[in-house]
Write a structure and sequence with these properties.
This protein is of the alpha+beta class. Helices cover 22% and strands 36% of the residues. It is globular, with a radius of gyration of 23 Å.
Length: 184
Protein backbone atom coordinates (compact mmCIF):
# COMPACT_ATOMS: atom_id res chain seq x y z
CA UNK A 1 0.00 0.00 0.00
CA UNK A 2 2.87 2.33 0.80
CA UNK A 3 4.39 1.78 -2.68
CA UNK A 4 1.08 2.57 -4.34
CA UNK A 5 0.86 5.79 -2.34
CA UNK A 6 4.37 6.83 -3.44
CA UNK A 7 3.58 6.13 -7.10
CA UNK A 8 0.45 8.20 -6.82
CA UNK A 9 2.39 11.16 -5.40
CA UNK A 10 4.99 10.82 -8.17
CA UNK A 11 2.25 10.68 -10.83
CA UNK A 12 0.53 13.76 -9.42
CA UNK A 13 3.87 15.59 -9.22
CA UNK A 14 4.70 14.74 -12.86
CA UNK A 15 1.23 15.70 -13.98
CA UNK A 16 1.56 19.02 -12.20
CA UNK A 17 5.00 19.56 -13.71
CA UNK A 18 3.66 18.77 -17.18
CA UNK A 19 0.84 21.24 -16.75
CA UNK A 20 3.31 23.83 -15.52
CA UNK A 21 5.56 23.33 -18.55
CA UNK A 22 2.63 23.55 -20.94
CA UNK A 23 1.28 26.56 -19.09
CA UNK A 24 4.48 28.56 -19.45
CA UNK A 25 5.19 27.76 -23.09
CA UNK A 26 5.12 30.93 -25.19
CA UNK A 27 2.01 31.29 -27.30
CA UNK A 28 2.48 31.72 -31.03
CA UNK A 29 0.29 34.45 -32.47
CA UNK A 30 -2.33 33.05 -34.82
CA UNK A 31 -2.20 36.13 -37.02
CA UNK A 32 -0.14 39.24 -37.72
CA UNK A 33 -1.27 42.69 -38.81
CA UNK A 34 0.10 45.58 -40.83
CA UNK A 35 -0.34 48.87 -38.95
CA UNK A 36 0.00 52.46 -40.10
CA UNK A 37 0.51 55.85 -38.51
CA UNK A 38 -0.62 58.63 -40.83
CA UNK A 39 0.03 61.42 -38.32
CA UNK A 40 3.30 61.74 -40.27
CA UNK A 41 3.89 61.86 -44.03
CA UNK A 42 4.42 59.50 -45.63
CA UNK A 43 2.39 57.16 -43.42
CA UNK A 44 4.70 54.93 -41.39
CA UNK A 45 3.90 51.20 -41.56
CA UNK A 46 4.99 48.17 -39.57
CA UNK A 47 3.96 44.64 -38.59
CA UNK A 48 2.80 43.44 -35.15
CA UNK A 49 0.32 41.09 -33.51
CA UNK A 50 -3.29 42.26 -34.03
CA UNK A 51 -3.74 43.23 -30.36
CA UNK A 52 -0.80 45.67 -30.46
CA UNK A 53 -1.85 49.23 -29.69
CA UNK A 54 -0.06 52.54 -29.78
CA UNK A 55 -1.82 55.94 -30.04
CA UNK A 56 -1.98 57.18 -33.63
CA UNK A 57 -1.60 53.73 -35.18
CA UNK A 58 -4.37 51.77 -36.91
CA UNK A 59 -4.52 48.26 -38.34
CA UNK A 60 -4.92 48.08 -42.12
CA UNK A 61 -4.71 44.31 -42.75
CA UNK A 62 -4.36 41.00 -40.92
CA UNK A 63 -2.54 37.90 -42.18
CA UNK A 64 -2.03 34.30 -41.14
CA UNK A 65 1.71 34.66 -40.58
CA UNK A 66 4.39 37.37 -40.28
CA UNK A 67 5.80 36.59 -43.73
CA UNK A 68 2.47 37.35 -45.40
CA UNK A 69 2.12 40.56 -43.35
CA UNK A 70 5.60 41.70 -44.38
CA UNK A 71 4.87 40.87 -48.03
CA UNK A 72 1.89 43.24 -47.79
CA UNK A 73 4.02 45.89 -46.02
CA UNK A 74 6.71 45.53 -48.72
CA UNK A 75 4.10 46.05 -51.42
CA UNK A 76 2.88 49.24 -49.75
CA UNK A 77 6.43 50.50 -49.08
CA UNK A 78 7.61 50.04 -52.67
CA UNK A 79 4.40 50.59 -54.66
CA UNK A 80 2.62 53.42 -52.85
CA UNK A 81 4.42 56.71 -52.18
CA UNK A 82 2.05 57.33 -49.29
CA UNK A 83 3.61 54.55 -47.17
CA UNK A 84 7.08 54.10 -45.66
CA UNK A 85 8.51 51.36 -43.42
CA UNK A 86 11.64 52.15 -41.41
CA UNK A 87 12.24 48.40 -40.94
CA UNK A 88 12.31 47.90 -44.72
CA UNK A 89 14.25 51.11 -45.45
CA UNK A 90 17.04 50.32 -42.95
CA UNK A 91 17.38 46.71 -44.15
CA UNK A 92 15.96 45.01 -41.05
CA UNK A 93 13.39 43.40 -43.39
CA UNK A 94 14.68 42.33 -46.80
CA UNK A 95 11.65 42.12 -49.07
CA UNK A 96 13.62 40.30 -51.76
CA UNK A 97 14.17 37.34 -49.42
CA UNK A 98 10.56 36.82 -48.40
CA UNK A 99 9.42 33.53 -49.86
CA UNK A 100 6.38 33.99 -52.07
CA UNK A 101 6.30 30.70 -53.95
CA UNK A 102 5.74 31.29 -57.66
CA UNK A 103 3.35 34.19 -57.22
CA UNK A 104 5.94 36.65 -58.51
CA UNK A 105 4.35 40.05 -59.15
CA UNK A 106 1.20 38.99 -57.31
CA UNK A 107 3.04 38.52 -53.99
CA UNK A 108 2.11 42.01 -52.82
CA UNK A 109 -1.56 41.20 -53.30
CA UNK A 110 -1.64 38.39 -50.73
CA UNK A 111 -3.92 39.35 -47.86
CA UNK A 112 -7.41 40.70 -47.17
CA UNK A 113 -9.32 42.87 -49.65
CA UNK A 114 -12.86 44.14 -50.08
CA UNK A 115 -14.70 43.05 -53.21
CA UNK A 116 -17.68 44.87 -54.68
CA UNK A 117 -19.19 46.79 -57.55
CA UNK A 118 -17.70 50.07 -58.78
CA UNK A 119 -19.47 52.88 -56.90
CA UNK A 120 -21.60 50.23 -55.26
CA UNK A 121 -21.77 48.18 -52.11
CA UNK A 122 -19.07 45.86 -50.81
CA UNK A 123 -20.14 42.35 -51.75
CA UNK A 124 -17.61 40.39 -49.75
CA UNK A 125 -14.41 40.54 -47.76
CA UNK A 126 -11.96 38.28 -49.60
CA UNK A 127 -8.45 37.03 -48.90
CA UNK A 128 -5.92 36.29 -51.62
CA UNK A 129 -3.66 33.53 -50.32
CA UNK A 130 -0.26 32.22 -51.44
CA UNK A 131 -1.52 28.63 -51.22
CA UNK A 132 -1.81 26.70 -54.48
CA UNK A 133 -5.08 25.04 -55.34
CA UNK A 134 -6.28 22.99 -58.29
CA UNK A 135 -7.15 26.05 -60.42
CA UNK A 136 -4.66 28.67 -59.19
CA UNK A 137 -3.95 30.34 -55.86
CA UNK A 138 -6.72 29.91 -53.32
CA UNK A 139 -9.02 32.89 -52.86
CA UNK A 140 -11.07 32.84 -49.67
CA UNK A 141 -14.30 34.51 -50.67
CA UNK A 142 -18.05 34.32 -50.38
CA UNK A 143 -19.02 32.74 -53.70
CA UNK A 144 -17.75 29.94 -55.98
CA UNK A 145 -17.10 32.62 -58.66
CA UNK A 146 -14.23 33.85 -56.49
CA UNK A 147 -12.46 30.62 -55.52
CA UNK A 148 -9.03 31.04 -57.13
CA UNK A 149 -6.83 33.85 -58.42
CA UNK A 150 -3.76 34.33 -60.60
CA UNK A 151 -1.79 37.04 -62.32
CA UNK A 152 -1.78 36.86 -66.12
CA UNK A 153 0.24 39.68 -67.64
CA UNK A 154 -0.99 42.89 -65.98
CA UNK A 155 -4.36 41.33 -65.16
CA UNK A 156 -5.54 39.93 -61.85
CA UNK A 157 -7.89 37.06 -62.65
CA UNK A 158 -10.55 35.66 -60.36
CA UNK A 159 -11.69 32.14 -61.14
CA UNK A 160 -14.73 30.03 -60.43
CA UNK A 161 -14.20 26.77 -58.53
CA UNK A 162 -14.29 24.99 -61.94
CA UNK A 163 -11.34 27.11 -63.18
CA UNK A 164 -13.22 29.41 -65.56
CA UNK A 165 -12.23 33.09 -65.36
CA UNK A 166 -15.02 35.18 -63.82
CA UNK A 167 -13.29 38.58 -63.45
CA UNK A 168 -10.35 40.22 -65.24
CA UNK A 169 -9.11 43.12 -63.12
CA UNK A 170 -6.62 45.86 -64.04
CA UNK A 171 -4.68 47.88 -61.44
CA UNK A 172 -5.89 51.48 -61.15
CA UNK A 173 -3.61 52.31 -58.18
CA UNK A 174 -1.67 50.31 -55.58
CA UNK A 175 -4.79 49.42 -53.58
CA UNK A 176 -7.50 49.41 -56.23
CA UNK A 177 -8.20 47.00 -59.08
CA UNK A 178 -11.15 47.23 -61.47
CA UNK A 179 -12.61 45.11 -64.24
CA UNK A 180 -15.69 43.38 -65.62
CA UNK A 181 -17.49 40.30 -64.39
CA UNK A 182 -17.15 37.61 -67.07
CA UNK A 183 -20.12 35.22 -67.19
CA UNK A 184 -18.99 31.64 -67.55
Amino acid sequence: MNLHYQNRILYIFLLALGILIIGIAPARPESWSVFRNCNVRPCTIGVAVPTWYEPGWSRISTHSDPRAAWIRACSLHYNDRGYYSPDIANGKIDCTKLKTGNIGRGAGLVGPWTFGRVNGPVLCKITLTSKRGSQGYILKGCHPNESFWEMRGANLLFKHSDGSVTSRLVRRNSNYWEGPYLPH
